[in-house]
Structure formats: C-alpha cells, structure tokens
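Q: Hi! First time asking for a complex rather than a single chain. Here are the components, and I think there are two in total. Is that enough to go on?
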Amino acid sequence: MDKIIEVRNLDKSYGKTQVLFNINLEVKRGECLGVVGGNGAGKTTLLECIEGIKGWQKGDILIEGLTIEDDSRHLRRILGVQLQSSSLPNEIKVKEAAQLFAVEHDIDVEEKLYDELDVRRLLNKQYGQLSTGQKRRLHLLLAILHDPDIIILDEPTAGLDVNSKYLLYTKINELKEKGKTILLTSHDMYEIENLCDRVLFINKGRIGKELSAESLLEGDRHIIAISSQKNSLSQVDTMYAKLIEVKGREVYFECSNINACLKELLEHLTAQDDQIRDIYIKKKTVEGELIKMMRGDEQ
Amino acid sequence: MKSLKALLVNLKIYYVMTFRNTFLLIAHYLLPILFYLLFSVIFVGIDKANKNIIIMSMTAFAVAMNSYIGLPGSVVRYAAGDIKRAYIAGGISLWHVFLCVAISNMVHCFITSMVILFTAGPLFDAVMPESMLWYFTALFISIVLSTIIGVAIGMFAKKESVATVVSQAIFQPSLFLSGIMIAVKFLPDFLQGITDIIPLKHSYILLQGYDQRSLIFSLAFIAVLLILLVIRYRFIIRRE
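A: Yes, that's all I need. Here is the structure of the assembled complex.
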C-alpha cells in the first residue's frame, strides 16, 4: 500500500505554547489509523493541521504528495472531514445542508446515504432541532457525501447512544471495505480496537507507541481489573502481575501469563485473608497501553 | 457554470433561512416597517411639508436598519467559530456564503423599500419621487452601500456581541447626522463638518434626487469598503 498522507517533522504552537513536537507519521492508502491519547495530548490539533484548518510553524504535510497550498480544491475534493466540534446555522434544514455541501463539489446527494445514516426522517428538520446523535450522523453524511478517498473523523461517536454508535460503526466498516483511508480519533477504546488497522499513541504533543491490530491480538497478555474486600492488592507488583493503576478499590494488573498471574494474586489474597469482590479479565488492549503511557509520563 | 449553480443554491437557502429566524425577521421586516409607520405619523404630524421627503427618509432609515442591525450577526457567525470551520473543512467557499448573505439582505432591503414606497402615499399622502428611474438607481446604490457596511461590521467583529455593539455605535450616530431625523443645517457647526463621512447622509441625499457630490462619495465608500473586505476575507480564510 502506498502512502497517502505524510506528516514530516511537524511542529505546531499556539502563541508561545508548543503543542506538537516533531510529529512524523505516514498513513497508507486504504488503512484505518487510530490516534489515541489523553485530553490535551494534541490529537485534534494534529488532525486539524492535516485537514488544513490549522497552520503550523515547521514541517510538511503531504496528501497524495500535495500540500494544501498546491491544490486546495483537489484536496478538499478527496478529503472528507468530521470535526470534533462542528456546527451549522440553526435554521438550516438537514436536506438543505446536504445540498449546500453537495453543490460545492458539483454532485447530487445519493439518496441511499440518507437511509444508511438514518437521517431520512430528519430531512425537513432544522439543525437546531436535532439531538447530539442526529447532528453527528448529519456531519458524517456531510463528510462522505462527495465520496472522498480520505476520511478524517475526530471522535465521531462522542455523546452517542448505542444505536447511533452501531450505525456509525457499520458505515465506517463499509467505507473501509471500499478501500477508503480513514484517520480516526476516539476515547472509546472498543471503537479503536475494532475499527483500526493500526493505532498511534500521542502524548503531550509527541508520538509515542505504535501498535498494529495484529500485535494487539497476539501473545498472551491480559489486563485484570480486581477489587477485594480488604483492598490488599493495591501494593502488589509481582513477576507475572504488574501493577498498572489503582482506581479507588479497583486495581489494574497487566499479566504476561494469565494462569501464573491469577495464581500469584490468589496466593496473596489468601495470605492476607482477603476475598475477591469483583474481577474482570480481558486481553491486552489499547486502553491498557494508553494508561501505561500516561502513567509512565506522570512518573 | 458550476460556481453559478452553487451560488444560486446558496442564495436560495440563505434567503429562506431568514424567515426561520425570529430575530432576523424582526430586524429585517417588522422593526423597519413599524418604525417607518411610527416616524411617519410623527414627522407628518409635526409638519405637513415632511410628506415631500417621507418616502426618501424612511427608505434610507429602513435600508440602514436592515443592513446595520440585521445583517452583521448573520455575517459574523460564518466569519468565526465552528460554522466557519465546518464550512472550510467541507470545502464550502466562504465568499459564496458572504455574497449570498449580502444579496439576501439586499432583497430584504428592496422589499421593505417597496412597502414604504407603495404605502406612504395612501397612508400619509406622501409625494412620490420625481424620477422613478433615478429613484431606483439611488435605491440600488444605497442598498449596496448599506449592505457592504453591514457585511464589514460582521466580518471585522470576531463575536456576535461585538458586532451588536459596533452596529449600534454606527447606526445611531448615522441616523442623527444623516439629516433623516434632524436636518443637517440645524446641527452644530462642528457636527455639520463631519457629516460628509456618514454614508447614510449621502444615500438620503441621492434618494431625494441626483447629486454629483453624494454620488461620488457613495461610490468612493463602496470602493474603499470592498477593498477592505477583500483584505479581511483573506485573513478570515487563513489557517488558524
């Protein structure tokens, strides 16, 4: 797969505050890249630089080998963008908004898109009358109605109910199957794990780890979230059970060998005459890696 | 062709949107017409001779009110904030938007002016303009000038609250220094000297009849403001 987006040595500042430091990344054509990080890490700023909404002080951003100054009209044609915070005039109707965006690309809106994103019944509603989920679906519609090659989605499911999320996941998977390149940020780790081919971690404006989907599924690494009656596990850190985080009464461990890990924890609980209140086990996830990265940074 | 089609679709949408916004409806139609009726009753009641100029003065007033009060808020929401970002990200030309909002305002001004033109006679025994051809020419120039001022307020203000304050700061003095409320000759000497920089004064004079000086002033205001708007537009679409 060839590169469709290249970011090289990107620095971005707001006034005297630098927020992106020497960012280098490549997105291959047809892949779905997830960008994760804590609040204020620089995810949205990075995406908005790629989208051409924000400028930067140093570095290059190339899309299909072109910069935004080279041919902004062509780039707007191949880019579809759903911003994190986006708005339209409250008085505009859904159908009018679609027409407005479509006519700028000299196309007609494909009627089936209204059904795929469940906005047909909203066509005559004004933007100000829509719920958060309905607005998100509309903004996704506006991002893809001109059939762009690259789709950038900044927290597309934030604030949505389960049904709306499912609709969006279905649509994103369809776009992936069509070979679209997708750049996605989200705080929903389930979304990132299940939609993305690759995940990039960003922390305080710097690119940290990179994980492929395969590496997440491989190996025998698990995360255990466990709470006990006497809370005796909060200081435990053993050969197989590595303490990640303590959240109230819940203690998180990363286990390289789940059987050995559980055995160690149970031995400790028995020795302390403690009992499990609740336990949750899952395979190593993006969330675990993110917590590790953020915790490591705090230390 | 594509650009023209986009412009026409934009124009239809932005014009129709006015009627869904209560504030805009009030600012563009209800208030100007109510004030026209009220002021006409007062002015003609004070001095019957005012019926000779009531159409011109109230038209100038209504056009200014439409443009200085009703228009800037509509412009500023596209010049800054999340709507602007959504439009840029979606590939929508902001100049299309500003142009369509301006044309939409010009249509509102024209409709209000026609209401005044065709009701002032029956209601207040107003005298019609001597030359309808010149009157419509002057009306067009006045509407264009006022609209450009309204767009400028909206494009330079970064927030709606700022636009509102600036609108009032320009509209109120314009009203009193233009000769609409008080004849210029009755103003103190030092104020008479500065009335030439009030675009509304020249619009009012042109509506009363051909005046070369006011025509030159009006066209000069239009030219200068257009240049400023082009410069400002480049700042608006610049990446943050």
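A: The mean pLDDT of chain A is 87. Let me know if you'd like any chain examined more closely.
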